[in-house]
Amino acid sequence: MLTVWSWGFLLLGIATALAIAVDVSRRPQPMSIMNVTWPITGLYMPLIGWWAYRRMGRAPTGSQQARQHHDHGHGYQGHHHGGDKPKWQSVFVSATHCGGGCTLGDVVTAPIATATGFALLGSTVLGHFALAFVGAYLFGVLFQYLPIRAMSDSGPGAALRDAIKADTLSLIAFQIGMYLWMLIALHAWLGEMDAFTAPFWFMMQVAMLVGFMTSYPANWVLIDRGIKHGM
Known about the structure:
The structure is a single chain. This protein is mainly α. It has 8 helices and no strands. The longest helix has 35 residues, at 156-190. The N and C termini lie far apart (40 Å).
């Protein structure tokens, strides 16, 4: 039964990610890294990810942008897509940005950990967690670094330092949430960390959602203190 539920939610996540990806291809994001982040969000937020993208991240089409530019050029002052979001939405999108890098790192490293039997201190579970953290950290910092470089005059060194400052706390918070859920799942349902089974990835899907929730307060603090910009 767990396998059936697992495939159901995994396929729903894949369908959500594909729907977002198709829409993003027609409506590219102002910040290019979000063209990757939003589909990844759909993977671990089936259906909810589509709602969040439509509500908080969907960019206008080229013709809509042209109309907005024309209206503003004639003194139109109305609200338009892409204006200031409520703070909770800005933090939400920032958390998806962090979650995108973390999720990609986890997806890449989990099969490696299973295939190699990598262990830390004699524990394959710790081995999984260690590789997941390294992968998540590398991709997470990269997801911060690329837009900083693209949208500022910072040199490579300064941009890397800013990316590390902006991502470290939220990434740690995300991974802690993920680890806690996977430990529960390991003892309650999985029995072992096997990245070549559907139940493992279903539990990872839930773990990433839990990680998103634990990273949300961290992103709020980082934005409040000006370490990270709201999105």
